[in-house]
Design a protein that fits this description.
The complex is a heterodimer of chains A (298) and B (336). By secondary structure, chain A is of the alpha+beta class. Chain A has 5 helices and 16 strands. Chain A is 27% helix and 45% strand. In chain A, strand 11 and strand 12 form a beta hairpin. In chain A, helix 1 runs antiparallel to helix 3, helix 3 runs antiparallel to helix 4 and helix 4 packs antiparallel against helix 5. The longest helix of chain A is centred in the first third of the chain and has 23 residues. Helices cover 74% and strands 1% of the residues of chain B. In chain B, helix 1 packs antiparallel against helix 4, helix 6 runs antiparallel to helix 10 and helix 8 runs antiparallel to helix 10. About 2% of the residues of chain B have low confidence. Classes of the chains: A alpha+beta (298), B mainly alpha (336). Chains A and B meet through helix 1, strand 7, strand 16 and helix 5 of A and helix 11, helix 12 and helix 13 of B.
Chain lengths: 298, 336
């Protein structure tokens, strides 16, 4: 056991461990069982530091700190939780998509309390969270995570859902061009026409059988299939933003254009539960204390 | 674009290259480094400049070539790619200070070896290898095909002339490094030493031309493209600076090296650097916990790796110079 405390062994273990955990070397891509190797190297390094702990108080602090750090990271690695939660405005959930090693989905994991999204923009997401005092709102930004019930919610990102919140459709052919807003829930009314949304394609394309589909949820080439009704008769109208006025309905003597879209967005945030994080921090600070002791002596 | 970081880079670069051999000339070096650090002060309100300011402060305190060179690289990077949206990060500032101290320890260790009679050819070969590696990886290895471009997408700027110059640099530095390494392995091969020296001098000159042309063309024709490729260009400049420092040591007359290096200074500086690196890891973990909500981020991993390398560098064992260089590399990766 004493051999683990030799300078050459500690130095070699340290360099090897640093190399394996450094993100730029991407060890998980080329090293089989990288987590096991990391755990083994970290354990041996901590043991090496503990073995020499009888030398002086600085070495004892260093060894104790290393053990505390290793135990905390190990605890969080095995018993901690990490995953993501996606919410659209007005939606509430009480579970999140848990992820395992390598981002593998482990299914839905309950949070134990509901969390909702009240509003969101590119910078801030306002969450409604239950607390002992009742339901309250908190602001979540890229710069500040929030904690509740042992979980931390952070890194909010606005992502498109592939649906649309509102379309603006121009109706041409009358005395003047008129524009009307259409939402999935509420049809637009203009010139006696009722315009409803049947289907939306955020990134329109045709497949090999000339069937429409969307290549992505991003609004790169938005198009929509509308249902236009007047006097009890209905027509299906195809509009695409890239080709204004492409579809003309002769009985109505009108053509339709999609002038703008407001895509429906959701907020995807990271959810983590790392109960031993404060202990990990304390472990590093103990190691700093051990080094500071050595510094004072040198 | 403020010119002050560029001025700071020039002053700090001048500080790095001032003085005879690898020995310090603390007065001039410290004055130039202090002026360079002062030039960075107006931008200190921008958190993105904190790591460079910390590097410059370390360079002023130590007044040795390697910290000054590192601070010059940081200032040049700040000039080419201003970090206007960076979040305040105590971890990066601590890592900057730790990097300056680690570089100072590396300088001190090299000086101690040289004053102990070690051959400076190893330093020059290390500089040549660094230049070789940095040029070969620039722009995804395009220099290996005699080409060079800055940036990507529609803003990409093709610089075939710089590609040719840097390709020749790569050949000369590779051949020079191999020749000097051959001499180190077989000291009786004196011809290899002379050839290596000449080739590395040629490589240093070609690198200066190539990098100078790249900077001139990038600044005049495509500043955005240059900003995107700033890390690679600054990396090449740092490697060229290392080569120049190695060549200075190699070509210096015997006795130019400070005969009484501060042996204990390296130990104190290294311990302080390791301590600061561990503090940077703790700060990175805290920042990860407060911002994205977890300490399991690549940045924290890199910070912990640098801290562990710092601990390894303290061990009184073999390959101390290599471990100190690895520690410094870990901190530089963290800053990038």
């Amino acid at each position: 056991m004493d051999a683990l405390g030799r300078p050459g062994v500690v130095a070699s273990l340290g360099v090897a461990l640093a190399g394996v955990i450094h993100p730029s070397l991407r060890a998980p891509e080329w090293l089989p069982a990288a987590p096991v190797v990391v755990a083994a190297l970290a354990l041996l390094l901590a043991l090496g530091l503990v073995v020499r702990a009888r030398r002086d108080a600085g070495a004892r602090l260093l060894g104790l700190g290393a053990c505390l750090l290793l135990a905390s990271v190990g605890y969080d690695g095995v018993l901690g939780r990490r995953g993501s939660l996606t919410l659209v405005v007005g939606q509430a959930k009480n579970g999140f998509e848990e992820e395992g090693p390598g981002g593998r989905s482990l299914g839905l994991r309950p949070l134990g309390f509901p969390i909702g999204l009240e509003r969101a923009d590119a910078r801030v997401a306002v969450l409604s969270l239950a607390s002992p005092q009742g339901e309250g709102t908190v602001e979540l930004t890229r710069e500040r995570s929030v904690g509740r019930g042992g979980f931390r919610f952070g890194d909010p990102r606005v992502v498109p859902t592939g649906e649309v919140a509102r379309l603006r459709v121009a109706v041409q052919g009358g005395p003047e061009t008129r524009e009307v807003d259409v939402t999935p829930e509420r049809p637009g009314l203009v010139e006696g026409l009722q315009i409803g949304l049947e289907r939306y394609f955020p990134d329109f394309a045709l497949d090999g059988k000339q069937q429409p589909f969307s290549r992505s949820p991003e609004s790169r080439n938005p198009a929509a299939l509308l249902r236009v009704e007047r006097d009890g008769k209905a027509w299906r109208v195809f509009v695409i933003r890239a080709l204004p006025g492409v579809h003309r309905i002769e009985p109505l003597d009108r053509s339709f254009s999609l002038t703008s879209v407001e895509p429906e967005v959701a907020v995807r945030m990271r959810v983590t539960r790392e109960p031993a994080a404060p202990l990990a921090g304390a472990g590093v600070l103990l190691m700093v204390g051990g080094l500071a002791f050595g510094l004072r002596r040198s | 674009m403020s010119l002050l970081p560029a001025l700071a880079a020039l002053l700090l670069g001048g500080a790095a290259l001032s003085g005879p051999g690898t020995g310090p000339s603390p007065g001039v070096t410290r004055l130039l480094a202090a002026l360079g650090a002062l030039a960075l002060m107006p931008g200190i309100t921008e958190p993105g400049s904190w790591p460079v300011a910390a590097l410059a402060a370390g360079a002023v305190a130590l007044a040795t070539p390697l910290p000054c060179l590192l601070a010059a690289g940081g200032a040049a990077h700040l000039y080419l790619r201003p970090a206007v949206t960076a979040e305040p990060s105590a971890a990066l500032a601590l890592a900057g200070l730790a990097a300056a101290l680690a570089a100072g320890s590396l300088s001190a260790e090299a000086r101690a070896r040289l004053s102990g009679g070690a051959d400076a050819a190893a330093l020059a070969a290390a500089g040549g290898a660094a230049l070789c590696l940095s040029v070969a990886t620039l722009d995804g290895g395009r220099v290996l095909r005699w080409g060079l471009g800055l940036g990507s997408g529609p803003a990409r700027l093709e610089l075939p002339g710089a590609g040719l110059l840097l390709g020749l640099t790569l050949l000369a530095s590779w051949a020079g490094t191999v020749s000097l390494s051959a001499h180190l392995l077989a000291p009786s091969a004196t011809g290899a030493r002379t050839l290596g020296e000449r080739l590395l001098i040629l490589a240093g000159g070609l690198a200066s031309l190539g990098i100078g042309f790249t900077l001139f063309a990038g600044l005049s024709r495509g500043p955005e493209a240059l900003a995107e490729s700033a890390t690679g260009v600054v990396g090449c400049s740092l490697a060229a600076g290392l080569l120049v420092l190695g060549l200075k040591a190699l070509l210096a007359p015997k006795g130019a090296v400070d005969p009484t290096p501060r042996q204990t200074g390296a130990g104190f500086g290294e311990r302080l650097a390791a301590l600061l690196a561990l503090l940077a890891a703790a700060a990175a973990g805290g920042e990860g916990w407060l911002r994205p909500g977890t300490y399991a981020t690549p940045f924290v991993s890199a910070a912990v790796a640098a801290g562990i390398l710092g601990l390894s560098a303290l061990e009184p064992s073999r390959l101390v110079l290599t471990r100190r260089a690895a520690f410094l590399a870990g901190l530089v990766f963290l800053l990038l």
